[in-house]
Fold:
Amino acid sequence: MPDIELRSLTKHYRVHKREPGMGAALRSLFRRKYETVRAVEELSFTIEPGERVGFLGPNGAGKTTTLKVLAGLLHPTSGEVRVVGHVPQRREAAFLKQITLVMGQKQQLLWDLPPAETFALNRAIYEVPKKQFDETMGELYELLGLAPLVGKPARQLSLGERMKCELAAALLHRPRILFLDEPTIGLDVSMQASMREFIRSYNERWGATVLLTSHYMVDVTALCPRVVVIDHGKLLYDGDLSSLVRRVNPDKLISLKLSRPVGRDDVARFGDIVEHTEAVAKLRVSSDKVRDVVSGVLAALPIADLTVEDPPLEDVMRQLFATKADETKVERAG
Amino acid sequence: MRRIVRAFPTLLRIGFAEAVAYRAEFVIWMLTTTMPLVMLALWTAVAREGPFGRFTQADFVAYYLAALIVRTLSSSWVVWEMNQEIRMGTLSLRLVRPMHPFVSYTASHLAAIPLRGAVALPIAVILLLTVGNHVASDPVVIALLPLVVLSAWILAFVAGTAMGSLGMLMERSIAVWEIWMGLFAVMSGYLVPLELMPRWLATAAEWLPFRYLLGFPVEAIIGMADRAAVLRGLGIQWLMIGAATLISAAVWRAGLRRFEAYGA
Structure:
C-alpha cells in the first residue's frame, strides 16, 4: 500500500482582491472583490514507503498547498487523499504521530529557550518513551553535531544551527513521513550539504518516506531519484530525474580545456558562449547538434580536454516550464 | 486525555522556563499596570473630606491595591499570542502536533502564576500593613479567595482564546480585544468601583462578564461582599466560564474551518 496517495486532488480558495490606493480601499469597505485561486487541479500521484521524492514547480505552482493538504492543515476542495492509511484532514493523533512537517521559513523551536527544552516538549507531546528518546537524540546529536548547540537559547544560534535543531525537533518522534518544505532555504552551501546528508541517512536508517520541495536543484538531484513536477496546480511530470532530462531534451553544455588561448569569435561560431577565458570555454549547444559541434571544435581548436554535460537541473526546469507555457499559448490560440 | 495528563507537568515546566526567560518583559508589563494606582490617588483625594458613598479613604486604598493584585494574577495575554501565531502562520506547526493548541496555551499561562505571585505578594503585604482592617475577615470567604481569583483568570483566559480564535476569521481580531478592554475598564470596576456608578450601569454590569474578572474578586478580598454574595458570585463566574467555553469552542471550530479552507 502506498504511504501517500492523491486522487484528483483539487484545492481552490477565494481571496480578497483590491487595487492599490485610497479609493480602492474605501470601495472595498462596501463592495469586496474576490477571485478564486486554483491552487491545485486534479492532482494524482502515489508515493511508496521509503521513497524520496522531489516536489518541484515554480513559485505559486501549488507545492506548499499540496504539502499542507497532505499534513492535514488544509481541506481539499475535492478529490481523495490518504497518508499512511489516514485521511489527513481528520488530524487523528495516530496520524499526526507518524508525520512531520518542516517549513524552512517557520520555526517550532522555543525562541528564548535552549533547543533541549523544545526536544523535551516534543517528547512529552508525542509520548516518546525515555529509552527511545535517548537513543534517537544520541543519533541526532552525532549525525547533526548538536552537542554544542542544545544548551544555548535558540535566538543565539545561527540560521544553520537553528535549522539543524529544527530538524532534530521534527524527527525525534521518528516519523514515518517527512514533508520538507524548503528545508535548506537560506543555508550556506556546506550546511545545505550536511542537511541533505542527514535527510538521506534518516531515510535509509528508518525507511521513512520523504516528500521534499526545494528551489535548490542540487538538493533534488542529490536526494531524490524521483521527481513530481507541477505547474499551476497541474501535474507536468512524474518519474525519475534522468528521464525528465531526456524528455525535455535540453541544450547540452560542452566544456573545452584549451591548450592555448583562442579568440572569442573562433569559439562563438560553434555555439552560445557560456564562459570564455584563456584556458577554458563553455558552450551551450542544442542536443541534436552535439555530434557536429564536437567534431568541429576538435578539428578547428587546440583542445586539451572536452566534456559534454547535461545542463543544471535549474535550466531543465526553466525549459520545461517555458515549453509548457508555449503549449498553453498555442492551446489558447487554437 | 491521558496523554494530556502525562504531558502536562513537562508543559508546565517548560512554560515556567519561558516565563523566567521573559522575566524582564514580564515585570515591565506588570509595572505598566498602573491604572489602579492612578485611580487610587484620584479617589483618595476625592474622599479626603469624607466618605464617597460608603467608601472612605482607607476603603479606596484597599480597593485599588486589591484591584492591582487581581489584575496581576488574573489577566491573560493569550489573545496576543494566538493572533501573532495565526498571522505568522506558525499556528500550523501547533496543528500538526498530536495535542490541542489550547492545552499548550493553558500550560504556558498557568506556569507564569508563580512569577505573577511574586509581583502580587509585595502588594498584598502593603495592603495588609496599610489597611489590614479593610480586608475580608470571614474565614469561609478568605478560604474561597484563591478560587475566586483563579476563576477570574480562567474566565479571562477562555474569553481570550475566543477572541484569539477570531484571528482565523478576520484580519484584525486584536481590534475586538481592544473593544473588550475598553468595556472592561468601565464595566469591571477597574476605573471606578461599580457601586459608585449610575445604578443602570451597575445593574448592566451584573449581567456582563467584566465584573467577574475584577470587581467581584476585589469586593471579596476587601470584605465588601459577604459569604452569600461571594458564593453567588462564584456560581456566576462558573456560569460565565461555561458560556465562554462554549463560545470559544464554537469560534475555534469556525476559525479552524476557515483556516483549513484558506490556510495562513
